Amino acid sequence: MTNSIDDIETRKSVIREYWAALMASDMPRFRKLLAPDAVIHYPGQHYLSGDYRTNDDIVGLYTRLTKFISDGVFVGEVLDITTGDIYTSVVIRYEIRMPIKTLKGRAIGLFILEDGKIKEYWLHEWNQHMINWVFRSSRWFGWLMPIFSRKKRA
User: Fold this and answer.
1) Rounded Cα gap, residues 22 and 84, in angstroms
2) What pLDDT was estimated at residue 1?
3) What SS3 class is residue 45?
4) What is the mean pLDDT, run by run of 10 residues, along the chain of 154 residues?
5) What's the CA gap between 80 and 67, in Å, rounded?
6) Which domains does the chain have, with CATH numbers?
7) Rounded CA gap, 82 and 90, in Å?
């Protein structure tokens, strides 16, 4: 099966819209990108890990994730979007800015898109161990973030 130029551009456009919605923490915009039977596979061994099988659960996951973006903890950029016969992938580079240090990372998202919607998505971290640590400790750091923010402004 060969993808047409229009199909490739449509798939890349969906990924760009997905990324823009996340970076803006725009959940209504994000929800419109989900197929009715979308499934998100979020990796790791932490409190957010698992398979999300309803749009409400998926939006709930991303609402929690975009909190890191709106707080300025996560800053990322798309490096590349590729399309194959079935899958569309996106490679991202990011920083997780914490009070004690900044962690740099990369990840690849593997999507199945149908009719301009996200049907299925797997995230693959290049350093899953680091991400597990970040999410496991984020509850602890979450309590301290307002304290560090006040100290920096004072």
Assistant:
1) 24
2) 53
3) coil
4) 82 97 96 98 91 97 88 90 96 89 95 97 95 78 45 40
5) 24
6) 5-153 (3.10.450.50)
7) 6
3 state DSSP class of 141: helix
The per-residue DSSP string of 62-126 comes to HHHHHHHHHTTSEEEEEEEEEE-SSEEEEEEEEEEE-SS-EEEEEEEEEEEEETTEEEEEEEEES
The 10 Å Cβ neighbour count of residue 87 is 14
Tokens describing residue 127: 């350093």
Distance CA(5)–CA(142), nearest Å, equals: 45
In terms of phi and psi (left: phi > 0; alpha: psi -120 to 50; beta: otherwise), the region of 146 is alpha
Instruction: Find how far residue 22's CA is from the centre of its chain.
Output: 7
Answer for the pair 59, 27: CB distance below 8 angstroms, yes or no: yes
Q: Please give the pLDDT value at position 117.
A: 97
**Structural tokens at position 19:** 């990324």
- Token pair in block for residue 83: 């399309």
Tell me which residue of 51, 33, 44, 142 sits closest to 98, measured CA to CA: 142
